[in-house]
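Re: beginner question about structure tokens

> Can someone show what the tokenized structure looks like for a real chain? I only ever see the sequence side.

Sure, here's an example I had lying around. Input first:
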Amino acid sequence: MTRRRGRHGLPPSHRLRWALVALPVIALVALQLNRALPAPVVRLAVATTSAAASGDPPKLPWPMTGEAAVAVPDRGLLIQSGPEDPVPVASLTKIMTAYLILRDHPLSPTTQGPTVALNDDDQNEAQDDEVSGATEVPVQPGEVLTERQLLDGLLVRSANNFADVLAQWDAGSVPAFVARMNATATTLGMRKTHYVDANGLHPQSVSTAGDELRVAVDAMAMPAFAAIVSQSTIVLPIAGSMPNYVSSIGTDGIVGVKSGFTQAAMGCLVMAAHRSVAGRTVLVMAAVTGQPGITPLDTANTADVSLVDAVAGDLSVRSILSRTAMAATVATSWHDGVTADPARTVTLLTWPGDVVHLSFTPAHVPVGARAGTLAGTLVISDGAERVSVGVRTTASVTGPPLSWKLKRG
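And the corresponding structure tokens:
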């Protein structure tokens, strides 16, 4: 008797057994092929810290007497000559006065702002300052000056009477304004500063070179303040044309900021100057207090210029991360992955001994992502200078081969 065969040459019973074996295999293969793929893993491929500039911080030409400090706002760098004690700072006090006025009543570099009418008391104060030898700007009752004109006289001509006019206009009284000055000093980290007046005539208005730079750096970030202190002369309605007490402003890249002198304080000067570092214009600041000599302000000016030049000479602009550097990798379970490079070369202004810090935030990179896909964001910081740059894949993130799909566990 002959066994009946089907159309494909197998008996029906054999076809059934084949189906019972083949169907689970087919189902398993289908399951493997359709399982979700593990997401690519993005990892940083560079060190999180690195030396930006080798060597020890340089020795600076600190003055033999008094206190001194230097600052580079772009770097967040502030260096003091040594331990500081609070000392009288004379008209450097007016930096805080102007800073508070501009914070409460902002101006653009070219606007005049609101007006203030002057009275008999304002004229009497100006006359008293003149008799005592204190710096002042003559005024008349009924004269109307703008906020900008008052700030010009305060900062450029160091008018003690204008400090009180502005304080009363802002806070209602000089004592109320001085209380705000001290509160602001605390906020700015000026731990060795205490004011008793708005103009610095009183020897108990004390600070340090480092503290004065702290407020001056913030003040110079205000465009109106920077514009005011960069003027070599000002013109006021009654007083006429008056030169800046910082006679070097406008020369050798010097753009501010304020001098001060009393017998208790001697020569004090906060200076800001532009210097070129590898083709990049950098603001460098220096402050000195207690400078002696026949002309104490000239002594202070010489000391500040020497410090500014020394600091600028030790700064450098360095490439921290090249555009072609491998910054990250995008790895998959079936392949070592692809590299990801920065979108641009990163350079920083550096100081000897600096340590650069890097932080990385990975992005989601799907399988099949094309070359140029954002793989994450890298933040490079050195002091106050921070640069954020995107990191992008250099090739496509391809899917797995069929063999990997079938063999994976």
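Each token stands for a local structural state, so reading them left to right follows the chain. The first helix runs from residue 12 to 34.
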